[in-house]
Predict the structure.
Amino acid sequence: MKRRAVTLILVLCALCVLCVLSAGAAVGHAQTLQLLQTAGRISGRVTRDNAPLAGVLVVVQETGATAWTSTDGAYTFTGLRPGAYTLLLSLGANSTSETVSVTGQSPVPVINVTTAVDWVLTYFETLVVTAPSRQVERADQAPAPVTRLDAGDVERLSAQALLPRLVLDAPGVQVTQSSLFDFNINTRGFNDLVNRRVRTEIDGRDASRVSVMGSTAWASIPVALDDIESVEFVRGAGGALYGAGAFNGVMSIRTKNPDASMGGEAKVTLGDLDTARVDARHSGRLGGSAFFKVAGGYQSSGDFARSRVTSVEYAPGLLPREVVPLSGDKVKIAYASVRVDRPLENGNRFVVEGGTADSKNTVSATNLGRYQTVDQKQPWGRAEFTSSRWRLLGTVTGEALNNSIGLSSGGGAYDQGTNLQMSAETHGAFDRGRGRVIGGVSYGRQNIDSLNPQGVETIWTSAQKVNEGAVYGQADYGFTDRLRGSVAARVEATELHPATVSPRGAINFSIAPGHTARLAVGRAFKSPTVTEYRLETAIAPPVDLSALETALSPLLGGTKLGFQNIPLLAVGNPDLKVEELTGVDAGYTGLVGTRTVLNVSYYRNSLSTFTSGLLPQVGTSLGRLNTTYGPYRPPAGMSAAAAAALLATLNTALPASLAASMTNLQNGAPAFVVVSLGNFGSARTQGLEIGATTVLPDGWRINAAYSIFDYDLAITAPDISILPNTPRHQGSIGVSYVAPRFDAAVHVRGVSGFQWNSGVYAGPVPAYGVTDVQAGYPIDKRLRVGVDVSNLFNNEHYEAFGGDLIGRRALAHLTVRW
């Protein structure tokens, strides 16, 4: 109840903050109401070479009102009195002006302005992002390093239909593939088989699983890659604006508006692993003022997974065997969605959409071992209202996991849940665009349960509900033409742990035109999940001690021990603390010559109170991890002599570690709690991330990236091992060619060997190198063919110890547009 009260107070405070942030807007709104019959609006768009130009600062000289062009080049000013206005447009060292007149006509006049500029811009100046500050800005002015892919980049990499592969070549990003559809994305160390250190959003909706908030089920991402407008990956602590899930970074995905992608397309993909996939979408006008988009797809394919019942495919003696063979059925994935947009007359937009995704027979590696999911459904919905000052967003994500079979235990896991998220966000500018503010409030509620068809809980002890609330904001200001600073913070409270504060401060200094240095200091938190707090699930087949119970029957006097099938369990720990990170990030973004953009980032982080992987419940220097499950107690009613004899017999008959882990469940039944979780240890990490993009004449481009990672651990339990599960070195280089009649690319990626320790999996990951190629050819305006080959030379390797051997996958595709 206390934490619920904290959350409620936090939300109320957040509303007050929003009221303060929008006070100026409220005054302007009142004035606008008084001038309703005479006020006007300017709706503008900036283009260059017939393409929209984003990130242009537009200032109304007479009023000081400011706006930045969005990714479609658009901007809007409202509430203007009748009269003449001068619009000042600038981007970098380029500027121009437009003179427009607002009349006093009725109804409210709308002035449409299209400004076509012939500015000479470098690739450096066209890098515009939104994720680092939740608003439009140039990448070199962002408070954190960011990699952006536009729609063209995504389309050329879309044939594999595996979204994590889009950021394979991003500097400092570790993409770990455990099976064909099982990925973990991380940056800056301490990866895991179920990584929760990078927040993934699709159009602002948290895309993570309801049962394991922060972890994304990539097989069930309900969007075709061809429908993605942009992908931005922000590295470093992002908690100041995004919360606990952005411990190491943020991956923000934006899909195309239907009115910006009219018509449709269908893609058919065939290839290795018996892959057969079809994706289709269509956008059109719905009535006179609304637009719609429908999309869907289906895929059937094999997988890289192999059975481990009789043997393992690598590291015999280290890689554990399993008790359940893989299903012979193919992986099947389907998704469908519907979206309706209503652009309003004043430049605002209302969006409502929803859909579902369904995956069958996918294999994933976890800290408890591999699981094969019989069926998993993820319905979702989103409603959003945006204006020049406000964004109101409500999303819901569902999950229905129907029997995920533990290949190491034979047990089945089920879960059903919903994640409801609501947020309100406002932003504005002051001092003629030199300063900007953004503030928001959010509320979330997760409901999950793990009942199987027989009414038995399979993951948790009971249904779980969690409420959370947060308030956040950022202010940035250009002190001079060369120096810009920002401060941001987020206060977040939940019923699972006390309130946390995630601050961030950053300065960006222009050393010279085209050369910017950045220094940022921030703090972030990673909260344990409901599963980490309250897990209670089998990790191996039960132990049958019925023979022992029969032998002891003369002493028991008819008392039943329930020794027939004693479960071996992994349990959570309700006493876990949040992980903490304090980091410093120094960076440089510069234009080398006229064609190469160079990005360099050095970071140094201090991490503490690690939430461990699953560790022995007893028998280490950490003591009994979860004290809720104490030593085994004989049934009540037994005589003291019989109870003592029973305990003595168990200690003699069972291995010492198993006897020490024997305990009682809440109903008194016997169980072996084998592993649990704890907090221990601290670490200091540092690393260097380098990325370079060279844009050459005639459609050629070269991308290169390299990162080095180093760490120093301070472990409070000398007999327990914790590893960052991160390679010391990784790098990539890619060459692409894009022309109207042909495009092609070659990407080479190399990763140094490293040690892995995550739950039941501990062993080496040897160094590996992978070459990928893509090519496309448009037959005409409607038809396009292409090929995409991952791991061209079939270098079978594994990227996480416990994951599958990853081989070659060659695909061919045909796209039809209308």
Remarks:
- The radius of gyration is 28 Å.
